[in-house]
Specification:
Helices cover about 30% and strands about 25% of the residues. The protein has about 270 residues and is an alpha/beta fold. It has one domain: HUPs (Rossmann fold, 3-Layer(aba) Sandwich), CATH 3.40.50.620. The strands form three sheets. Strands 11-10-9-12-8-1-6-7-13 form a nine-stranded mixed beta sheet, sandwiched between helices. α3 crosses α4. The radius of gyration is 21 Å and the shape is globular. The termini are far apart.
């Protein structure tokens, strides 16, 4: 069976950068946000690699990436991501920082997916990150599924296999370091991926060139997405660093451990 795989993924600042929140007339943002190097969200990256693996196993499958981010930053990042695997980009030009409202983001993504020509829900699998590197809400994919009318939703997915009968066998993380194995008879379904178990694909310049020939016109025509939000922020700041140090000599290790335990309890 061929699948139509839609991967939802945004951008995140390169984790090696120092991030400093600032207040702006439009709300909180990161200092020099447009100047910060960006990467494709690591959680969404796992979803994309898993999508590529599934598409290779099922001839005729297609992959589309729906991404909400500033158009200029998205173009920069896609020049790298496009070399990993073949896919079609569906860009939305809008804010992509960590201060956007999850419900507004889900509405924009769901609207873009629903507008894709030739969409067939009997083949549709919507992939995305369980959470994100910019926002720990962990609810965007569920809301995308609800807005698309897809009730088969699987969270914290680590593995997906298709059995001989065409059913989806999905392994999800649950409490206690265990996995729950579910069986979904057929698409449509939403899968929010955790880490998966696939390595990052190697760069393939020819694939990148082929992808970019279609991506550049798509980016130029990217629809603007304004995210309405009822959220207000009283203050944004870096976490405070607290350090308590006491230098001691000739104290037994057991006594040090007891003092640490008491400090933690307090």
């Amino acid at each position: 069976m061929a699948y139509q795989i839609i991967v939802c993924g945004g951008l995140a600042p390169d984790p090696l950068q120092t991030l400093e929140p600032v207040a702006t007339p439009a709300g909180p943002a990161l200092k020099n946000e447009m100047m910060l190097p960006a990467v494709f969200d690591p959680w969404a990256s796992h979803a994309l690699y898993e999508a590529a693996h599934l598409a290779r196993q099922h001839a005729g499958s297609t992959i589309k990436v729906v991404s909400l981010a500033p158009k200029a930053k998205l173009q920069q990042v896609m020049m790298t991501v496009a070399q990993k695997l073949p896919f079609e980009l569906v860009p939305l030009d809008g804010p992509g920082g960590g201060f956007t409202d999850a419900a507004s983001v889900a509405s924009a993504l769901a609207g873009a997916i629903a507008a894709i020509p030739g969409l067939d829900k009997s083949q549709l699998l919507v992939f995305g990150g369980w959470e994100s590197a910019t926002r720990g809400a962990g609810v965007v994919m569920q809301m995308v599924g609800e807005k698309l009318g897809i009730t088969e939703q699987f969270l914290a997915v680590d593995e997906l296999k298709v059995d001989a009968g065409g059913a989806l066998v999905i392994k999800e993380r649950v409490e206690g370091g265990r996995h729950q194995v579910s069986r979904c008879a057929a698409p449509p379904a939403v899968l929010a991926w955790a880490t998966g178990n696939l390595p990052e694909p190697a760069n393939h310049p020819q694939t990148g060139m082929a992808n970019m020939r279609a991506m550049m016109p798509a980016l130029q025509k990217a629809k603007a997405a304004s995210l309405a939000s009822a959220i207000t922020y009283a203050e944004v700041a870096l976490p405070a660093v607290t350090r308590q140090t006491r230098i001691v000599k000739d104290v037994p290790a057991a006594e040090i451990a007891r003092e640490i335990a008491e400090w933690i309890k307090q």
